[in-house]
Write a sequence for this structure.
């Protein structure tokens, strides 16, 4: 009870310094229950005579936007749909023909990945779905690290189930990724990109894949004095997976 009174008294100091002095004076401390009651009533009375005033918020006075519909429509561009529609449709048709003529699994993977990276995959959703379905039926087990990780990533990105056990053949007797893979830079990059597509249950496996590939890719970059297409791709992938 005394603690509550002390807390109340301390709060009142902000409002009325004189009341605070009275409350903590020795004579008041010696008073009994009735004295404390009178003090609390006095404090309440003091506080009630000074109603809190709400602070008025200033108006932001924002200026109206200059970007009205008339201004936006006034901008012109040479790249109108009417002028380039024919070329666009021709390119789309050529890409669809590529899907039909591409037979190998790895070539299908590269085609899908290229369209996704270019940001035009939405034009070919049906063709990509059909190609991915063909990849799920691929029974070719003789794949290097690059193709295995590539295959794993594309299937996972499109919602298909594929086990992390596909990476077991690249591990040594201790169950860790074989150090001989350090020279396979393309394969390590594919493994790095695939390591982000796992579930909670697979966290250990894919975290190991990420750690292993990151280390060796960074080591490779440190040993390169000149920049080329591969090093630029590695730097970009490591910076923004």
């Amino acid at each position: 009870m005394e603690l509550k009174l002390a807390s109340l008294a301390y709060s009142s100091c902000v409002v009325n310094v004189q009341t605070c002095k009275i409350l903590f004076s020795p004579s008041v401390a010696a008073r009994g229950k009735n004295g404390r009651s009178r003090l609390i009533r006095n404090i309440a009375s003091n506080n009630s005579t000074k109603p809190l005033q709400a602070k008025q918020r200033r108006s932001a006075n924002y200026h109206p936007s200059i970007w009205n519909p008339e201004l936006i429509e006034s901008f012109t561009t040479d790249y109108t749909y009417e002028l380039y529609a024919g070329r666009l449709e021709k390119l789309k048709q050529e890409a669809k023909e590529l899907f039909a003529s591409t037979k190998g699994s790895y070539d299908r993977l590269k085609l899908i990945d290229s369209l996704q990276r270019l940001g035009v995959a939405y034009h070919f959703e049906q063709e990509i779905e059909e190609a991915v379905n063909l990849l799920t039926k691929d029974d070719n087990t003789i794949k290097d690290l690059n193709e295995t990780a590539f295959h794993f990533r594309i299937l996972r990105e499109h919602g298909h189930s594929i086990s992390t056990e596909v990476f077991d053949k690249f591990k040594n007797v201790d169950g860790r990724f074989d150090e001989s893979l350090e020279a396979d830079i393309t394969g390590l990059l594919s493994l790095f990109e695939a390591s982000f597509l796992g579930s909670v249950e697979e966290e250990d496996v894919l975290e190991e894949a990420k750690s292993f590939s990151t280390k060796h890719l960074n080591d490779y970059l440190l040993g390169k004095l000149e920049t080329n297409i591969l090093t630029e791709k590695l730097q970009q992938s490591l910076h923004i997976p």
